[in-house]
């Protein structure tokens, strides 16, 4: 018996080489506030369906890794207090019949097991500031499992780069070491989630979804093990005003410092603070960039599907 449960529509689409895009559940359960998160989960699926692509939202429910959720499953990831589950948590949830919302790492792993090749998210996890220490701080070693997982998982992830609360230079260095391919979608500038540009340039840019599908095909022929990150910046007219962004981030870091927040609590603290301090502006941008990534992932999945023998 397969340990995975594929929804009928996902199983049918995969069996017939029709386009499928995986969606993560941690962004719904932990990344977006209620009740907007339920609308967002449904909207992301709708964007795919409107483009003839089958959505595969992924989560572990009662111990079963589900690839494609029904309406009740989507409601559960938006409304229940679920564990945030990375790859290492999957066997524990399965053995205990427990539930969890899957991170980029866990979603990529499960999607790939199911045979899905394209995945849309908001922002990837990465190397946290202070991971390697500083003049007056000890190293936290806080690097998301998203990075090493993408080194060994054959999936193409569309993301708006990584959040500017992370150490972006270190994240890009780690992706290089881990041999994860990174291409800018219509840009050479690596984006920083709410902003179009992080100040770091990429070696490669692609202009079309079919360019990405061609890289995926070549990847398979060359026996590369890892994934491909498609860095898709938010459109210029939707990005956060950089000066306001910098000011709110500085406030957020100062507040985290003053509150003595440490370790894995830092990111949720910063993100919550940033939504409040921006008067909700950062949340609207987060939704815009995620929608934009889902649209690009749909185009890539269609281009990939067209390359498959039918
Ligand atoms: N980026 C967002 N919102 C999120 C996340 C990232 O804008 O909710 C989630 C993703 O699921 C990502 C995870 O995989 O955070 C990374 O967490 P950690 O650094 O603990 O691995
Ligand atoms: Mn971490």
Task: Please give a structural write-up.
- With 310 residues, the chain is of the alpha/beta class.
- Helices cover 45% and strands 14% of the residues.
- The protein contains 12 helices and 11 strands.
- It has helices at 8-15, 26-31, 36-50, 71-79, 90-96, 104-114, 146-150, 168-177, 209-221, 242-258, 266-277, 281-307, and strands at 5-6, 20-23, 54-61, 64-67, 83-85, 100-102, 118-120, 156-159, 181-185, 205-206, 228-231.
- Strands 1, 2, 3, 4, 5, 6, 7, 8, 9, 10 and 11 form an 11-stranded mixed β-sheet that branches.
- β3 (54-61) and β4 (64-67) form a beta hairpin.
- The chain starts with a strand and ends with a helix.
- The model has no long low-confidence stretch (mean pLDDT 95).
- It binds pseudouridine-5'-monophosphate (PSU) and manganese (II) ion.
- Manganese (II) ion binds next to loops.
């Amino acid at each position: 018996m397969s340990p995975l449960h594929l929804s009928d529509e996902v199983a049918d689409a995969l069996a017939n080489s029709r386009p499928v895009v995986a969606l993560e559940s941690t962004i719904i359960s932990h990344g977006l506030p209620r009740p907007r998160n339920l609308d967002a989960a449904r909207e992301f699926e709708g964007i795919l369906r409107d483009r003839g692509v089958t959505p595969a939202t992924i989560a572990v429910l009662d111990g079963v890794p589900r690839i494609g959720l029904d309406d009740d499953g989507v409601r559960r990831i938006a409304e229940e207090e679920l564990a945030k589950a990375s790859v290492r948590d999957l066997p524990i949830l399965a053995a205990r019949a427990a539930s969890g919302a899957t991170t980029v790492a866990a979603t990529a792993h499960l999607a790939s097991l199911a045979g899905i090749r394209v995945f849309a998210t908001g922002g990837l996890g990465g190397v946290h500031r202070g991971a390697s220490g500083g003049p007056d701080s000890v190293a936290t070693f806080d690097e998301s499992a998203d990075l090493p997982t993408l080194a060994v998982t054959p999936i193409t992830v569309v993301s708006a780069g990584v959040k500017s609360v992370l150490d972006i230079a270190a994240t890009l260095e780690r992706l290089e070491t881990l041999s994860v391919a990174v291409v800018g979608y219509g840009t050479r500038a690596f984006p920083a989630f709410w902003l179009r540009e992080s100040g770091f340039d990429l070696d490669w840019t692609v202009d079309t979804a079919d360019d990405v599908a061609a890289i995926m095909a070549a990847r398979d022929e060359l026996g590369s093990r890892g994934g491909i990150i498609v860095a898709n910046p938010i459109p210029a007219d939707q990005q956060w005003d950089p000066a306001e962004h910098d000011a709110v981030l500085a406030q957020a870091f100062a507040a985290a410092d003053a509150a003595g927040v440490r370790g894995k609590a830092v990111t949720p603290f910063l993100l919550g603070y940033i939504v409040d301090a921006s008067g909700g502006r950062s949340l609207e941008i987060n939704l815009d960039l995620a929608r934009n990534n889902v649209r690009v992932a749909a185009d890539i999945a269609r281009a990939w599907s067209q390359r498959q023998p039918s």
